[in-house]
Design a protein that fits this description.
The complex is a heterodimer of chains A (63) and B (221). With 63 residues, chain A is mainly alpha-helical. Chain B is α/β, with parallel strands linked by helices and 221 residues long. In chain B, a hairpin with a 2-residue loop joins strand 6 and strand 7. In chain B, the strands form two sheets. Chain B has a four-stranded parallel β-sheet, with helices on both faces. In chain B, strands 1-6-7 form a three-stranded antiparallel β-sheet. The chains are: A mainly alpha (63), B alpha/beta (221). At the A-B interface, helix 1 of A face helix 3 of B.
């Protein structure tokens, strides 16, 4: 569960910098869980569509 | 080692208001081990600042460097040619490192990115406990290696006080009574007679600030 804590910490860092923390999320699944993977990808796609394009400038995006 | 923690991001960003050429300078020793100001934390802070500035459409250059120790002047050699390029240095060292950076580059603004908290030990992954207050009068030899000045909230040199209760402290019931710990440790070592030793009040003259220590071999004749 250390990875989960680190992802949560990264979400906090993003939020402090003004980036929506919802853009980063951890999902638990097995390597062969194709159905779960698709579900997670769909969920994140929906979140990204609702939030819209990242407002951060091109300079940082290029890094 | 010295344990520190990152200041709130808003405070760090606030300090950098009005500066556009910024060097985030890390320290690779104590604050690196306590995951507050080493190379990795410098990368995280610099990235956070770049993201925040980009969002505010502030035109700022944020660069990174980490030296092995900010409390030793020779380690600054590797960045000495770079520092002049920046308006400001934000240091992720402990208070000593920030002060040496500021002393070496007197015309340069050096801001602290961390709050230095204590001298402590690692208790587990990501957990540190305070163990020493650098009081300059170590009594650990008498107390079974447990520091009453640090572990006892009252800093009692002779204990326990009347507030010890089932091995816990009256100040905080979740904390162990330092003098109960000392009693049990001395008992294990067969040195329980030490508990009766009366310690004189601390001599605060030896712990006035700022302290200076000169090694015997380097003292002038």
């Amino acid at each position: 569960m250390r990875a989960k804590k680190q992802v949560n910490y990264a979400r906090k860092l993003l939020e402090e910098a003004g980036v929506e923390p919802e853009r980063l999320r951890m999902f638990n699944m097995g390597a062969s869980d194709a159905i779960l993977f698709k579900k997670a990808a769909d969920e994140m796609d929906k979140v990204a569509s609702e939030l819209g394009p990242n407002r951060i400038g091109k300079k940082e995006a290029a890094n | 080692m010295i344990v520190a923690e990152k200041k709130p991001f808003e405070e760090i960003k606030g300090m950098l208001e009005g500066y556009s050429n910024i060097l985030v300078l890390g320290c690779g020793t104590c604050v690196s081990v306590c995951m507050a100001g080493g190379e990795k934390e410098v990368e995280l802070l610099a990235s956070q600042l770049r993201l925040a500035f980009a969002k505010e459409e502030k035109n700022a250059q944020v660069d990174e460097a980490t030296i092995l120790r900010q409390c030793d002047r020779e380690y600054f050699d590797e960045v000495k040619d770079r520092i002049d390029q920046y308006d400001v240095v934000i240091s992720t060292a402990c208070g000593a490192g920030v002060q040496l950076a500021s002393e070496l580059y007197e015309t340069k603004v050096v801001f602290p990115a961390l709050n230095t908290t204590f001298i402590g030990i690692a208790q587990g992954e990501g957990i540190w406990d305070e163990r020493c207050q650098a009081c300059a009068q170590c009594v650990l030899g008498d107390t079974g290696g447990i520091c009453p000045v640090t572990i006892c909230p009252k800093g009692l040199l002779n204990g326990p006080c009347g507030g010890t209760n089932d091995g816990k402290c009256e100040v905080d019931k979740n904390k162990d009574c330092a003098w109960t710990l000392i009693y049990r440790r001395l008992e294990k070592q067969g040195r329980l007679e030490n508990i009766k030793k009366i310690h004189d009040p601390r001599n605060y003259q030896v712990s006035t600030t700022p302290g200076r220590k000169v090694h015997e071999a380097y003292k002038e004749e």
